[in-house]
Please model this.
Amino acid sequence: MNRLFCLLFGLLLPLTGLAEITLTDDTGQDITLDEPAQRVITLVPHATELMFEIGAGDRIIATVDYSDYPKAARDIQRIGDYNALNQEAIIDLKPDLLIAFTSGPAMKDVEQLKRMGLTVFHSDPQTFTTIADALRDFGRLTGLDESANDAATTFETAIGELGSRYGDRETLSVFYEVWHDPIYTLNGESFISDIIDLCGGRNVFADLPVISPQISLEAVFEQDPQVIVTGPVGNEAESPWTEWPQLQAVNNNALVTVDPDTMHRPTPSLLIGAGQLCRDLDRLRSEVY
Model:
């Protein structure tokens, strides 16, 4: 009897170990895995960081250029970039999951890989809530639900603490410049705009219908923001906005520089950039406004 029980248990064990996973990605597509992913290729840098954040960095067998955080990610094999992917190399690696963006030049390669039978999960978190959701989704996909939930909860708590500290302070109107020539900004649907709100600011272009609109210099003058936030000015001695002292932000020297690496990726590392922006706005409240 004992031998029969052991035999039956041994036959059933592989079946009970299978845990089918079905999730809806950020394009509305349902994907299904027969079991948690073990060989993952991240085709967008934020996915690489989120995988490490939940303790799944060792599951990444290849990634793309600019997947440089955390430091361990720099040693992972590269199989392309935002513009194009090495399909042959990806196929040779036999991944059980690709994590891709939702748009961009490389999407033609992603669609071809789908047609060849590879499983693709599209990820494009644009708010604090969807960043936390992405952490939990990646936990589901890799079977690391507990650590992923811990990472998401830690992120949500830190966001809440920043909001509690700075969100109710005197509101400053803010223009966030993504690119200078031509001028690009972000509307209210972006997590950058959420960060501005979190710090007690108001994104002056929040109501524009496109998430990353090109705007005119005249539009900036019309809004006349109290603060202008830009990326590093590079080799220039000073911000190009100093050419326009008619703007109150320029006249008051309320020009803030941020690090794109800690502001432009939908990952917990944005807490670094968010914290710095909150402190900069608070300094301007006390010194200027």
Remarks:
- Residues 21-151 form a domain with the Rossmann fold fold (CATH 3.40.50.1980).
- Confidence is low (pLDDT under 50) at residues 1-17.
